[in-house]
């Protein structure tokens, strides 16, 4: 263990950082696109079906194939990896945002509108707060996927912890494989936990918790 | 131009959904300031549609709706809605906002300063008898009835003159519902608000409304005060909606004394002599005579007892006439008069009009008819039909008992 860290410690830190960095950018872009898109889609239910179907289809493309497909478009390196992971992150966020917004009780939407909220006020003051737990669940799911799949990004030269694992595979060195895998898992768990904390903070208080306890 | 103007006016309003489904048709309705209008009908009658067109939650496909004389179609719907209170069946409090935030939602949209909002919320929550510290609680911490109280005052928070309520108490238990009905009625009267209230519950409508608008199949069937509705249901549909039982029971509630009085009581003028009085009593078989002057004004009465005592000493009716007399107004509700008649143990009560002219009498026997009808069902179809049996004999029955 300590000898492994002595030999690969610096590399491990650098690769972990790369992994996190690629994932974070992909996820960030995913949120920036999918959340507003999901909200917008609730206003156009017919388009929504088509868009979600397309997003689902993209999800079924094997991850390695998707990464490979990026090469003719963006070459190799971090950019194609980020684009591919971004595409993967879209569906869970998009679908959860859409469902979350759709599930906001019609009573509340009616009430908000009837009291004289503009559509934007209704979205920001009522619908998004109410849909927040579902939207956050989609983001957490996407985050875990993206961090795990970012490992494959090393295949197209994006770096990350995948480098360690692929090296291990090529050189038949199980300690490299394990040494690369464990940080990926830890990273995913850690990010999921952090996002969970964020979800709690973002989810509006309703007073129900106190009553329940 | 404001005061005399009706607050809401429907001018031949139609609402046809895509696909040709007619929701409402040819709606012409005027809602006066201070009215409590109940829209009542079965599901699909168009009552909710009619109400929701006022704040443009639904757009009419034809006709015009005026709010304070202005065509609402020319107003910004968001601004319009902020002027109109809105209470819905499922309460619709925002679960993620405190009661304070919920109550002051519209004032906040209208950018009232914080201090004014706080003062408003505090005065409103006191009005519905909830403690002020509840303002910091969340809706989930309240019972359904308490939540709807907040729902009601939320609709008043921006000083809206017109409040729309869409079956607001439908989901509440009967006791809670009743207390909320009383609350709304008293708030409406106290604050002089105009309320448009959708319900399918006739009891609720009769209790709250000053005007009841009965709807069926997208049309207004009848627009009347509760008393008019009970007395003159426009057709069988309205009668069914009210329910035969309620119609019969209501008869006592809305029947006036004038409707059941006997119109030809035994009377005498003050100037007549006592022998004439005796002769009249014998002829009409009564033991008392009402005394009226030549113009028909009620003056008093004479009975057979004083007549025998005074027979030798006096000569004219005026001398022995007793002027202490219990009588009721022709327009008084029978319901209110029955109790008094029974409690005082009177055999009959004279009925006078507003000028104190004698119009007739109500006897215990006519009360028996009313009770009979209530128990056995009305045998006559029009609720206001007067006494099924004649007549002027009835005072005689009183006399008979006395002897």
TrEMBL record, chain A:
Source organism, top-level taxon: Bacteria
InterPro entries noted in UniProt: ABC_transp_perm/SBD (IPR051204), MetI-like (IPR000515), MetI-like_sf (IPR035906)
Chief localisation class: membrane
Domain ABC transmembrane type-1: residue ranges: 16-195
Compartment(s) of residence: Cell membrane; Membrane
TM ranges: 20-41, 50-71, 77-94, 134-156, 176-195
Transmembrane in keyword set: yes
This protein's UniProt keywords: Membrane, Transmembrane, Transmembrane helix, Transport
Its membrane topology: Multi-pass membrane protein
Pfam families from the UniProt entry: BPD_transp_1 (PF00528)
PANTHER family attached to this UniProt entry: CHOLINE TRANSPORT SYSTEM PERMEASE PROTEIN OPUBB, GLYCINE BETAINE/L-PROLINE TRANSPORT SYSTEM PERMEASE PROTEIN PROW
Family: Belongs to the binding-protein-dependent transport system permease family.
Protein name: ABC transporter permease
Species this chain originates from: Lacticaseibacillus suilingensis
């Amino acid at each position: 263990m300590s000898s492994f860290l002595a030999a690969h410690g610096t590399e491990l830190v650098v690769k972990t950082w790369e992994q996190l960095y690629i994932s974070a950018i992909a996820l960030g872009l995913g949120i920036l696109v999918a959340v507003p898109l999901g909200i917008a889609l609730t206003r156009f239910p017919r388009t929504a079906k088509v868009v979600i179907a397309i997003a689902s289809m993209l999800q079924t493309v094997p991850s390695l194939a998707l990464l490979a497909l990026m090469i003719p478009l963006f070459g190799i390196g971090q950019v194609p990896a980020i684009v591919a992971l971004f595409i993967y992150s879209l569906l869970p966020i998009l679908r959860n945002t859409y469902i979350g917004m759709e599930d906001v009780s019609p009573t509340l939407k009616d009430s908000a509108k009837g009291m004289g909220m503009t559509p934007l006020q209704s979205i920001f003051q009522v619908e998004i707060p109410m849909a927040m737990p579902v939207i956050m669940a989609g983001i957490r799911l996407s985050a875990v996927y993206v961090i795990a799949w970012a490992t494959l990004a090393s295949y197209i030269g994006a770096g990350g912890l995948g480098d360690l694992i692929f090296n291990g595979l090529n050189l038949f060195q199980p300690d490299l494989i394990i040494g690369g895998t464990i940080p990926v898992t830890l990273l995913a768990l850690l990010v999921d936990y952090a996002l969970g904390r964020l979800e709690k903070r973002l989810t509006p208080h309703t007073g129900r918790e106190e009553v329940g306890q | 131009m404001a005061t005399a103007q009706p607050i809401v006016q429907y001018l031949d309003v139609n609402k046809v959904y895509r696909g040709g489904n007619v929701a409402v048709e040819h709606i012409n309705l005027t809602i006066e300031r201070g009215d409590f209008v109940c829209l009542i009908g079965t599901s699909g009658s168009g009552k909710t549609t009619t109400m929701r067109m006022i704040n443009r939650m639904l757009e009419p496909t034809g006709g015009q709706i005026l709010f304070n004389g202005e065509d609402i179609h020319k107003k910004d719907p968001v601004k319009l809605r902020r002027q109109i209170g809105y209470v819905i069946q499922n309460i619709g409090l925002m679960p993620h906002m405190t009661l304070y935030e919920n109550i002051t939602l519209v004032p906040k949209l209208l950018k009232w300063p914080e201090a004014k909002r706080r003062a408003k919320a505090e005065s409103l929550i006191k009005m519905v008898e909830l403690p002020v510290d509840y303002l910091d609680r969340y809706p989930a911490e309240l019972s359904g009835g308490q939540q709807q109280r907040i729902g009601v005052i939320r609709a008043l928070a921006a000083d809206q003159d017109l409040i729309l309520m869409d079956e607001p108490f439908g989901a509440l238990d009967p006791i809670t519902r009743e207390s909320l009905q009383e609350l709304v009625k008293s708030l409406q009267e106290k604050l002089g608000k105009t309320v448009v209230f959708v319900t399918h519950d006739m009891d609720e409508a009769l209790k709250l409304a000053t005007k009841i608008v009965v709807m069926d199949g997208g049309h207004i069937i009848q627009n009347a005060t509760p008393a008019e509705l009970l007395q003159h249901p426009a057709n069988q549909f309205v009668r069914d909606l009210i329910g035969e039982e309620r119609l019969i029971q209501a008869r006592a509630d809305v029947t006036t004394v004038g409707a059941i009085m006997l119109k030809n009581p035994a009377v005498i003028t003050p100037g007549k002599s006592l022998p004439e009085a005796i002769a009249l009593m014998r002829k009409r078989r009564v033991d008392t005579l009402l005394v009226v002057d030549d113009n028909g004004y009620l003056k008093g009465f004479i009975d057979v007892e004083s007549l025998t005592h005074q027979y030798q000493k006096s000569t004219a009716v005026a001398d022995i006439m007793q002027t202490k007399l219990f009588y009721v107004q022709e327009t008084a509700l029978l319901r209110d008069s029955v109790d008094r008649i029974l409690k005082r143990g009177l055999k009959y009560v004279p009925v006078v009009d507003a000028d104190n002219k004698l119009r007739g009498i109500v006897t215990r026997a006519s009360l028996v008819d009313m009770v009979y009808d209530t128990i056995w069902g009305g045998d006559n179809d029009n609720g206001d039909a007067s006494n099924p049996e004649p007549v002027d004999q009835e005072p005689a029955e009183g006399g008979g008992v006395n002897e």
